């Protein structure tokens, strides 16, 4: 028998302040985290999300995979991050929601095929996983795109 409080996964921190630490996530914490994002960003079965961040990290799993699947939406996987390829995927799939780390946004912005219209069409464009880079936020804002800064701790499942 599996209880909601049982260990579901051990997810490691990035180790920015020392050695990476394994954080115990219960089934219950995954459900609560997924539901929180789902409700905050109004996910529904019509939502389409592209995931470019690793699914073994909370940013990819908790903030993208879980809320999309819990709402019955569509999840498009990018096997390995590549800014040019992601811009092509955004043009093809028209996602509603995108969450990445700041350097990934920089990579999309600096590609020849970057089209701000595709980003403006998204409901939510979010950065997390590391400190926001003002130059990237300003560059996107110049194109009329507001990148929301997300904050969370792996250590707080």
TrEMBL record:
Cytoplasm as a keyword of this entry, yes or no, is: no
Keyword terms of this UniProt record:
Ligase
> Source organism's superkingdom?
Bacteria
The keyword Glycosyltransferase appears for this protein: no
Q: Where is the AMP-dependent synthetase/ligase domain?
A: 3-156
What's an example of a GO molecular-function annotation for this chain? Answer: CoA-ligase activity
Could you tell me which PROSITE patterns the record lists for this protein? AMP_BINDING
- A Pfam family cross-referenced in the UniProt record is AMP-binding
Q: What is the recorded name of this protein?
A: Putative long chain fatty acid-CoA ligase VraA
Q: What is the lineage of its organism?
A: Bacteria, Bacillati, Bacillota, Bacilli, Bacillales
